[in-house]
Fold this protein.
Amino acid sequence: MSASATRARDPRGLGWAVAWGVYALFCVVVLAMVWYRASPQSDATDFRDFWENAIHFRQTGVVASDLGVHNYLPFFTILMTPWGLLPLQLAAALFVALSLGMFALTVWMAEALLAPRGAPPLVPAGRGDRELKYRRGDGERTRPLSSREGGWSNRDGAGPRPALLIAAALALPYVYACGVLGNVGILLVFLVVAAWFLIERGHPWVGGVALGLATLIKLLPAVLVGVLLLRRSWRAAGGAALTCLVLGVGWPLLALGPGVAWREHVAFYERAIRGHSAATTILVDRPIKANFSNNAVPIVLRRLLTPVNAGKHDQELLVNVADLPRVGVLATYFALIGAIVTLRVLPPLWKRRKGGAARVPHEDDGPEAARWQYASWCCLMLLASPLVWTHYLPLVYWPLAMLADRADRVARERGRPCRWSTAALIAWLIATLLLVSPAARAAGALTAGVFVLWLACTALAWQAGRTRSPRMAG
């Protein structure tokens, strides 16, 4: 019997079909929700704001800040203008469908980078799947199927790896939240992962362009330029900077004129940078975005350390465990963020002489350490953000993929789970389950989940950096 016929009879061969079927059903549910929420009878989608702002700009040439799009650069309004040519429901459904396709590509890119390579192709040799047939040189041999190669871990196309399934499953609740809102979080995670995929595959300039686009859509990914600079990936950092200059400055200058473009960028700074800064959030009497859905570090500290209402509308929800002076809360915030940034920035810069040669004792330019560094900075990006909504959290997909891959590889190679990755994944699952509790969200359950991911990725970056390997491309 041919190998293909055997694989067709093999229940494991249904693995990819089942996975794609589940994701297709997930997409149908999301798109149905989007279609309803974008209807004239509903006003519960962020995409409506993008669409209305696009129509307003197309008709007047003015970037409006009172139509829901007030925390985005002028570039974003210009970018979204074509969507205003379509009816709202069709535009929203098409935008979200493209976003869901981009998430599938994000999963594929992560798997392409992380899946093991170099093993001979394995093909089931007979009934019971207890033997494998593989090609070596000009001959064909069979051998027993080991327990570590059984099931879904085969590289024979029988099904997705457990690491892929775990990471995707842990990200899907946030992909759902982002999708039904019609927000840009899925597009951002696609660009963030695509940037690293392109850099690692030897296309640093193009990877920098992807990161620059992500930064122009939402400023959060600008933090990731830091890891490129620390790793001296000058071409990738240059590509990101050039993209921001050409599209973020040049395009608005052409579309709006110098005077209007300048005023719009100044208004964005006052509205989004100063108005939602950590200092403003902590020091003002009534923070603008204090409800429990916002899980940024500044507002979580403010809710925990001062009596601030975290409820929505007429709901009252207090979760504070202390009543500290606001200056003390601000000092706590700066101390916490300063410690986190220091732990990320100093180790790559700290060099020690050994045998006359300079070396980095914890992190070097090896691909494994580089991947963990990028994952750690993806978490740092969210910890440093002044606003973190649930639909921002697809951005943790790369850390989740790295941790799930580590857990899977260690379990197969050593017969025991990796403590760091397993603990971080469990903590993230718990944080996701706590989404149902407004009080837990107000107290920072999701923030704690991101922090645990950051801690695990940082520890594993240090561990991977102890073994030197060739410099990453770029």
Summary: DSSP finds 19 helices and five strands in the chain.
